[in-house]
């Protein structure tokens, strides 16, 4: 037989009782043998309604009788052979009989369920191994008519819960089975606010699983607890806000008893959950609620505005700032304001929004005495620095916990233009104030000149020395004007040669007639050579090259024959100090090599240059998910090369793991190629 059917199976299927009797009299007959599909002679007889043959087979010694009886029993019910089913039921124990009601419910076979309920003494509240009742099965699988059958049973208990504390109402509510929810809510004994082991109620399940119709039914119940909290004190509103379920949030906010400011065990509110998960539309809905408190802090003393400003969520910042009671200067546990956090990250659009708020304190320091402009200086965010200065940020006299001034921050950042700008402002001060800034020491016993010398950049050292010498000359002149000696008036000064450090090697200002295409090429060749050699002083000198009208000759984003910019070369060479300096000269982080599509971040990550990666991300985190021509991101490249430290950094900075490369592979596909030990670490 093609299906592995035996003669006994064929005779049982066809109802040929004479042949069945003959075969059963054979001494070597095996009634337990199965065909290729697992069928036995008993199953064939039960399926086709051959009662006499079923009786004959039941008199034979059957291996694993309960299993065969159960399968034959289910087949008899399925095909409407009730007399055979009743006969087989006598051979079944209670557990196997009740098992059939679960199978029938799951498959939606209402006739089976009716027959079982009408002809057998089945406990309608019996439980499966998971603790689920038949009613829960109906609620889970959305079998409304079968649920109605169970609900009509006189012994039904609709509030029973399974091993995890989940009830039929919870199943129907979280899976969108609204008709069953209606049936259950119409029962006077329904426990609408009952909680599962995790503390979830039917309302929480519906809100968290985007079941708006079911949520609406629950909210219309007069006894509903709209503010019920799970074991972590998280509410339905918090779950809906966290998951971006707009319709559900809207329904919950319309309920008159909603407490929009409830906090969980970490002191998170619904507004904080929406903010943390970048749900801008939901933030707007919550901000517009008349009872919302937009300034509530979590356990780390972070407000929604702090969080949104730290992670660059512009739309959310905009919504929060519209609230009339927003505390724009609220601080976190480190004393950081939203402005400090946004300035440190270089989020220009957010900094602008914050600066335009009428109550912003641009000079408010953190617990360490660091102001927004100091943070911007430390990270080299020039545009942010300019914005802060326009809004009267103090770049002269503020001092942090370590005695560092804005000028010291500027020197450390290596931004020559910023240093010059601060020095210009210094020269507007009175002599005493200027002298204090230039000569006072920080907690490390360093003056601004010491800080300049720490950079090992002649350009910066010369700038500070020149300023100090200028101040000394002024002091000498003042002394001479007060009491000039006879000898001093008679001495004729002899000219002295300037030191080599103070002499510019070449003039830095040119007329347009002097500048030929060959000249431009040569000056850029010098730049690439200086970058390759890490010659910072040479780069400083070249970056001073201008036309007489002030336009720069050097294009800092110029590419060489390989398609690399100076920044990409410095990143490739792991020169993080040079990377910072090039960024101070407005090198473009997003610029890509036209041949392979690499930018500086991808190149640094591929080569395992951690400090450079940090430097680039500190300048602009928004490039983190940029990809090259193979659609490979920095995360993919660092994962491929097993630079775990960089991988951790990128993940912490929220690099996306779902991006696919040109071969339709994600970072997880890359991990699959590794040994088990490496996989475990990832």
TrEMBL record:
Q: Where is the signal peptide?
A: none
Region Disordered, residue ranges: 466-511
Q: Does the keyword Repressor apply?
A: no
| Keywords recorded for this protein, A-Z | ANK repeat
Locate the compositionally biased regions of type Acidic residues: 468-478
Report if keyword Transmembrane is assigned. Answer: no
Pfam families, alphabetized = Ank_2 (PF12796), Ank_4 (PF13637)
Which SUPFAM superfamilies does the record cross-reference, listed alphabetically?
A: Ankyrin repeat
ANK repeat residue numbers: 3-26, 37-59, 164-187, 402-434, 562-594
Q: Which PANTHER family match?
A: GH07239P
Instruction: Supply the name of the protein.
Output: Uncharacterized protein
